[in-house]
Amino acid sequence: MSNASAFTTTPGLTPFSPNAAVPPRPKLNLHFDVCAGTFGHYPWDDWERWALARGLDAELAGQGRLLVREAFNHSWDSWLQSLCGWSDDGQALLAFALRAPKTARRQWEILMRTDGLRGDYPSPEQHWTWGFLRADARRLLSQLSTNNPQPTHAAPC
Length: 157
What we know:
By secondary structure, the protein is mainly α. The chain has a domain at about 40-145. About 45% of the residues lie in helices and about 5% in strands. The protein contains 6 helices and 2 strands; from the N terminus they run H-H-H-H-H-E-E-H. A hairpin with an 8-residue loop joins strand 1 and strand 2 (about 130). The chain is globular and about 45 Å long.
């Protein structure tokens, strides 16, 4: 019997053993050294394991992992990084996903598609365009900006 059979593979590729002790709350720190991390042990991986242990659906936990990672790796605006768990170790992100999984999934899909509300696909035939947002993304930006002091858009790199 191999060790691999003791783990459940999640959509985010982070191994999780259902029989393991409950993982500690992740430490999401924007100043961590990504080069010092190892595969499967980055803060977003820790968040996914913690979310799974707290009862979040595996697919949504994997999507949340991607959201936490992209907010960091793509240097999303600070208010969006905060929304994506980087200001409270992902506690509010998990609470939102547990409370309203369909809404969380839809909002997270929009954030990922638009790379943090930076641009979008005007149509299926067109390329992703910086600064363009489809109606659903504009609604989300309006909704989120009501709850956040000063949403700004980062300048193109």
